[in-house]
Amino acid sequence: MLWFGRHESTGYASIELIAYPLIFGGGSIVAIYFLKRQFLQESLKDFNSGNGTWYSDILWGLILAVGYFVLFFTFRETLSDLLSFNPNQELLGLMLDMRQSPLLIAIWFGPVLWLGIGLYEELVRIFLLASFWKVHESTGYVAFTILLTCLIFGLAHYSQGSYGMVTIGAKSIIPAIFFYKKRRLMPLVYAHVLYDGVQVAMFLITYQN
User: For the chain, what is the domain count?
Assistant: First the structure.
């Protein structure tokens, strides 16, 4: 998808930007499940083995989302003039189409945001981290794997330019450290959904045609 979006002049239509995260993200969630259970024969409790409750998960999600926004505004004030940013015109088009269609809004803020974006990306993150940490538990190794996953997530956003890669890579340190300390998946999903959802909602409300 990254290669296609970078090289094909036609890009993605709005319906594709709705369907592809569901297909690719949902399919990847299923693939990780079977990889974990059937191939590696490991417990899914690795993803949520820490102590916590549903309401503490929500609270931690809110706290993490606040941290994300603090970094967002900090990076915007300090790095926006130093690094290049490539705006996603296809996503802009989708958002404008969403303003005309309550159905698109419901689908994007529902299954796309929760499954195709939030759960998918955080599940990939903790699958990588949990797998790395089974190899060794030394502090230096854990720190290295956290930085490695941050690099991977940053590079995955290369289409957004150097600003997107650096800021997303740096922001990824927060969920990685949180998962190392708490071993809870859902706070990361809640924070991701809040962070992306609030930004898109504010755009839909404030953007002038």
Answer: 1
DSSP string computed for 85-143: ----HHHHHHHHHHTT-HHHHHHIIIIIIIIIIIIHHHHHHHHHHHHHHTT---HHHHH
Q: How far is 12 from 176, CA to CA, in rounded Å?
A: 31
pTM of the model: 0.92
Domain range spanning residue 179? Answer: 2-206
| Residues 7-62: tens digit of each pLDDT | 654 556 678 788 888 999 999 999 999 999 999 999 888 899 999 999 999 999 99
The amino acid that residue 87 corresponds to is P
* Interval 151-209: pLDDT, tens: 999 998 887 889 999 999 999 999 999 999 999 999 999 999 999 999 999 988 887 76
- Distances in Å between the Cα of 109 and the Cα atoms of 18, 95, 98, 202 are 10, 11, 10, 13
